[in-house]
Amino acid sequence: KAQLYDKASPDAKTTFKDVAGLAGAKEELEEMVEFLRNPTKYTEIGAKIPKGALLVGPPGTGKTLLAKAVAGEADVPFFSMSGSDFVEMFVGVGASRVRDLFKQAKEKAPCIIFIDEIDAIGRARGKNPNMGSNDERENTLNQLLTEMDGFGTNSGVIVLAATNRADILDKALLRAGRFDRQIYADLPDINDRKQIFKVHLRPIKIDDSVDLEFLSRQTPGFSGADIANVCNEAALIAARNGKKVVTEGDFTSAIDRIVGGLEKKSKITT
Ligand code: ATP
C-alpha cells in the first residue's frame, strides 16, 4: 500500500517531545506547525507559505519522526508514502498513486504529506546507467513535480520528504516552490544521545546503577534508531534472564550486539 491515512488518535500522537535532540530541525519545523495552525496570519499579509521541505540526514536519525511530530503538533492528518514503493511498478501505476495521494490530501487539508526515501523516485533523470532508463520512475517523478506545482501555496498541504542523498536528487525537485528548504537531521552528539536514551528508557524498568552518561559515551556513531534498538535489546536480554530490572551489563551486551550489526552492515556497503 503506497498511502496511509493515519491521523493518530490523540493519545498516540507523536509530538516534538518524542524527538530528542535535533534542536535546529525542530525549530525550523515549528514554523511549519505554525503555518498549518494559523495560515491566515501569513496569507493576510501577502506571504506565500512554503509547500515543502526536504529532511536530509543519515538513516535512523528521526526524519520520519520529525514529520509525524509536525502533523501531531498541528493536529492535522499525516499521509505517507515511500519512494521505494514505486521502484518496481507497472507503467502508469506510480503516477496515478501520486495523483491519488495528493487528491486525498487536498480533501483533508490542512495536512502533511510525507514522502520517505524520495531519492528512489527523485534521482536525477536520465543518469542511471546501472538500471537503464526507468520510465515509470520518471513518470512518477514528473507527476510529483506536476502535483507540487498544481496546488496553490496556500492550500494547507505541506509536503515533507526525506532522503539521505540530497546530492543525487533531480534539481527540478529543489526549485523554488517545491522542496526549496532543506532541514538537517544529523547523527546525534553525546548530549543528544543522552536525550534520546531518556526518551527510549521511559517505558523500561532500569536498575538504579544504570548511568546515562556511560551509555551515551559507549555509543558514538549510533543513530536514534540504533539507540532505540539498544534500549529494547537490553530489556529483552534482561527479561530472557528472568530479571525484573535492566542492568548496566544488559546495556553493554546490547551495545556490543548492535555494534556487531553495524560493523557487518558497513562491511557490506563499503
Ligand atoms: P530512515 O532514513 O531509515 O527512514 P529516519 O531518519 O526516518 O530513518 P526514523 O524512522 O524517524 O528515522 O527513526 C526510527 C526510530 O528511531 C524512531 O521511531 C525512534 O524510535 C528512533 N529515533 C530516531 N531518531 C530519534 C530521535 N531524535 N529521538 C528519539 N527517537 C529517535
UniProtKB/TrEMBL annotation:
Sorted UniProt keywords? ATP-binding, Cell cycle, Cell division, Cell membrane, Hydrolase, Membrane, Metal-binding, Metalloprotease, Nucleotide-binding, Protease, Transmembrane, Transmembrane helix, Zinc
Superkingdom is Bacteria
- GO CC term (a single one): plasma membrane
Provide any one GO MF term from the record: metalloendopeptidase activity
Family membership: In the C-terminal section; belongs to the peptidase M41 family. Belongs to the AAA ATPase family.
What is known about its subunit structure? Homohexamer.
- Keyword Membrane: yes or no? yes
Quick one: signal sequence residues? none
| Cell location | Cell membrane; Membrane
Q: Which gene encodes it?
A: ftsH
Q: What are the recorded Gene Ontology BP terms? A: cell division; protein catabolic process; proteolysis
This chain's protein is named ATP-dependent zinc metalloprotease FtsH
Binding residues for ATP:
57-64
Purpose of the protein: Acts as a processive, ATP-dependent zinc metallopeptidase for both cytoplasmic and membrane proteins. Plays a role in the quality control of integral membrane proteins.
Which residue ranges does the record assign to the AAA+ ATPase domain?
Answer: 49-189
